[in-house]
Design brief:
It is a single chain. The strands form 2 sheets. Strands 1, 4, 5, 6 and 7 form a 5-stranded mixed β-sheet that branches. Strands 2-3 form a two-stranded parallel sheet. About 55% of the residues lie in helices and about 15% in strands. By secondary structure, it is α/β, with parallel strands linked by helices.
């Protein structure tokens, strides 16, 4: 299943999501102000920004004070979604957290700040064998002195050709709630995930991401008809939402609706081959059939799309070893070790033949 986490649409009428079937107590989500200004934030602004009259000066000082080397020292962490006050207190967060923080501070400083969604080349993250995250991107546009300034904490280099869209506060808040719901889903807490996802939909029903992820929630709860409903609704919002289409294909196959699955299979397959972890799965199937050249070709394509994941290089090392390319296999294993987290070092320190035999 593909989950969407913050990055030609139509606005269909409001639709009430089906209930989640579970035996535990209902989870209630209190409304939250993602742009709250805490007393500490107010003090920060009074000290570093507000005493200066020029809007351009306030903007420059705000960016400097928030930056990694500034008074706040904000650190980018793509795994942490936070409100403005939470991000200020923690001094860390992902693009949604930073955007909440910067919009809140800039507006309090009298600056015209808005959220912006940036449509980058898809960035995939392999969470486990059944779940792949598709990461989207958010930053902030601040206007001053007839100039627009893009403020981005991630270090992502944006070209002039990247498609961008200014979004309103409700859309950005729905992205925040969507991310919190995804975190709960990855933790296996379906009721909590459902509560946050439906709250996101109530905040902005035109965000396809939430309907895609709601479809995943229903699918995990074996509510396949409701999963198909949610995914089809995502496609009514955006007919080119390929994550919805890919998940819908899986639901149709599981339901035995093979004719409907066949109608979208070709488009789904083209989309999936952009996903390095789908290519990894195909390589495993090729290895099982001892089609090592095909597996290596698939892994090369996967690595070309995602060059910083040790799992892809380890799969390449195993496949090269099985095909008799032992020197290349050792080279791939070395690259896997270079990219692996510290807690994987003991695993990778063993001989390659032992690792291959164990798998």
């Amino acid at each position: 299943m593909l989950l969407l986490a913050a990055c030609a649409s139509t606005q269909p009428g409001n639709v009430t999501p089906p209930l989640l079937h579970h035996t535990g107590p209902e989870v209630h989500v209190e409304d939250i102000d993602v742009l709250e200004i805490s007393p500490a934030m107010e003090e920060f602004l009074q000290r570093y920004v507000l005493p200066y009259k020029s809007s351009k000066t306030r903007l420059d000082l705000l960016i400097t004070a928030v930056s990694r080397s500034g008074a706040l020292g904000f650190e980018y962490d793509e795994t942490r979604t936070k409100t403005s006050s939470e991000a200020f207190k923690a001094r860390t967060g992902n693009c949604v957290a930073f955007s909440n923080l910067m919009v809140a501070l800039a507006r309090r400083a009298g600056l015209n700040a808005r959220y912006q969604e940036v449509f980058l080349r898809p960035e995939w993250s392999d969470y486990d064998n059944d779940t792949v995250l598709l990461i989207k991107h958010l930053n902030v546009v601040i206007e001053t002195n007839n100039m627009s300034w893009v403020v981005d904490v991630s270090g992502t280099k944006l070209s002039q050709t990247e498609r961008r869209k200014l979004i309103d506060d409700s859309y950005a808040k729905a992205l925040y709630l969507n991310n919190i719901a995804v975190e709960a889903l990855l933790d296996g807490d379906l009721p909590r995930s459902y509560a946050y996802m439906t709250h996101a939909i109530a905040t902005d029903s035109g965000l396809p991401d939430t309907w895609v992820n709601l479809g995943v929630i229903y699918g995990r709860n074996n509510q396949l008809d409701d999963a198909a409903f949610a995914l089809n609704h995502a496609l009514r919002i955006n007919s080119n939402e390929y994550s919805a289409m890919s998940n819908l294909y899986e639901v149709y196959v599981e339901q035995g609706r093979f004719e409907e699955a066949a109608e979208i299979e070709a488009r789904v397959e083209r989309y999936r081959r952009r996903n390095p972890y789908y290519l990894l799965r195909l390589s495993h199937e090729a290895v099982e059939q001892e089609q090592y050249d095909e597996a290596i070709s698939l892994l090369r394509k996967a690595i070309n799309k995602k060059e910083d994941d040790h799992k892809l290089y380890f799969a390449m090392a195993k496949t090269q070893y099985l095909s008799g390319e032992t020197a290349d296999a050792e080279s791939s294993l070395l690259r896997a070790k270079e990219l692996a987290p510290q807690d994987m070092m003991v695993f990778y320190d063993r001989p390659l033949n032992e690792l291959v035999t164990e798998q």
